[in-house]
Amino acid sequence: xxxxxxxxxxxxxxxxxxxxxxxxxxxxxxxxxxxxxxxxxxxxxxxxxxxxxxxxxxxxxxxxxxxxxxx
Length: 71
Description:
Layout: H1 3-27, E1 37-41, E2 44-48, H2 50-68
Antiparallel strand pairs: 1-2
């Protein structure tokens, strides 16, 4: 009985990856969002995508609640 839910979850993740891949192809790189930490020094680059991780967490939480939430 859980297999259809796993199937829907995998399809949703696949669609999300297709959309993300299309954005990377169109933009040429992943965008830096306001709030991300980016430090560039001579011979050194430090990048922490805080806002990107927060957005990904929110989207995954919504998807997981849609597919595996209580009914």
